[in-house]
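Hi L., both proteins are below.
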Amino acid sequence: METITLKKEKTIALVALIFAIVSLISSGIFYNNNKTLKNNLHAEKISAENMLSEKLALQKEIELFKNQMNALKGKNQELNNLIASSNKKLIEKEATLNKIVRQNGNGNSKQLKKQIAELQQLKKDFELSVMALNGNIKKLTNDNENLNKTIALLQEENKQLASNLAILSSITADNYQAETTKKKDKLTVVAKRTKKMSVSFKVPENMVEHISFQVSKPDGSVVKGKENGIAYQVVTEEGSDLFASVLTDEIKVSKKIEMTYSPKEKLKSGVYKVALFNGDKYIGSCNIKLR
């Protein structure tokens, strides 16, 4: 009887031991599976966060690129064409981004990084092209400024030429007069008796203040300036003469100018050249021969 009881106890103990071992093994397996699941969930969470970060970074790059292009619109047609081309590529990048996000696969983060790299290269190429275009625009602007300066100089020169032509036209008209006089303003052609040499003609009123003279003597010396006896005055006449510009058809009041040279020493025989200037521009001259 005791033997049977002992056997039952051993059997129960063995079953309990086996059950305990099985429970322990099951617990270990469950723990490992649970740990693996947690690790997988953690890895998936990190992957999702990385993908979200990459997506946001790519979207930010796209927005910055768009803003950069919008700021340059309308400045230049060639630049507008470049913006249109780059905008088309940008739309393609946005479509690729949306496709990658919809797929939501494990390799999406790598694909997003690749798209960011391609977008950065696209942006770099765009900036280089804009820099080159800006260089061309700057050169064209400088060329245009230089052209405007040249035009302004030519216009001023043309104005000067018109003024000179008007004076020459007046000088060659009938109102031109040159003479030499001795005492009591009597005419003479003898050098030693000459007290004053004068040349008179009419010019447009607005040119009077710019006219000057100088006299070249037979020996080649040049006389100019009030201190050396050269002067000129506007001769007042009755009535108002009219002057017609041969270039502009404008009718302007003309004034009679009289240039005088009063030598401080006796003149010598020969040809005296009276040169006329309009500002610093030489207009022409007349010769007076004395015996």
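That was the first. Here is the second:
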Amino acid sequence: MNKNLKKVIAIALTVSAFGAVIPGTSFGLISTKAYAASGDLTSVKLKTSDGSTIKTYDEDDYKSKNEVDDDKLEDNGIYYAKTSSDTIKVTTKGVSSSHVRIFKSKSNSAKGIKISSSIDLSKDSTTTLIIRTYDDDPGTVKYSDDSYTSQYTIKVKCTATSSNDDEDDEYDDVYLKSLSLSDGNISFSKNTSSYNVNVAESVNKISIAAKPDCDSDEYDDYTVRIDGSKVDEDDKFKKTVSLDKGNNEIKITVEDDDDNKRTYTLNITRGNTNNNSTNNNETATIIKANQWVLVNGQWQYNDTLGKPVKNMWENDYYLNYDGNMATGWQYINENWYYLGYDGAMKKGWQLVNGSWYYLDKQGKMLTGWFRDINGKYYYLYTSSGAMAHNTIINGYKVGSDGAWIS
């Protein structure tokens, strides 16, 4: 039954039952309470990766006169937001966070994302977020399930520019959960579509495993192909592919039963294809292997073949898809890291843009309550990782230094 129709019926029953005893001047109060459904959210906020709040509007012109406060969003409403951040989080109030799910696609098989999860936006494009509330924790829920109690739609425009055409894939909301190789190094992220891998010349075949991003009981809803051949749970989503000497391009596709499709590309180089000399004068080409090099003003790290390392860590430094050294906040394999201006991974307490963050021994940003080496308790907001201070968290007071006041 339509949720708005349910509310209208509830109002009609309320007025019918109490009309004979409630004065006419009180009807406005009765009506207001009838519309304040228990499943409605009292606040919806979008936040960037550094914790900044993203403004919400009721028109896509993003003008201040059309700005909507976070506590004014209504059930079944459609709203608009704009940000330069390609990773955001949604925070809500009024309903337990475990009763809220976010959908990035209206595909029937699209799975709800928990409110604590980071949401990747399509660069230079608009991502539609559907936020739904439920009477209780829905667990793993698909978009086709209409048992929700309220729904809010926010169309988020990401102004960040994509410099990698391979990331396009029409932005279909279907991914691989894992991608692994029997040889060569790969640092897999489901949002990264292209990888360069080097293997020794003696490696004439490689085993590739690619699992779809879904629960095991949903494998039948997805089709995975490696180098054109279908793989499934029976063969552990694995295929062995022969390699030619030199460059080998291998495509892996994942498709759901609603025809949403994404393609990942492996550019595997077998051996060193550089002949180290020119044909005319036989002048030797200098290969800078296993060292940092400066390319067009950007630091890169070359592997044993003299090729730039991409999409992976090199000690405490991370090399992006283009081989350039990363800096600032980086979301890698579902964890946030902070890399300094020099590219080095930061650990411990870090002051970033006026807020304190704590990175563990592996450089991963912590959230929630934690105890530092001095035995003091601090609270790091789950939405951003920033340290709370001068406030009360679930009945516990933290001071100006962020430490819990017992």
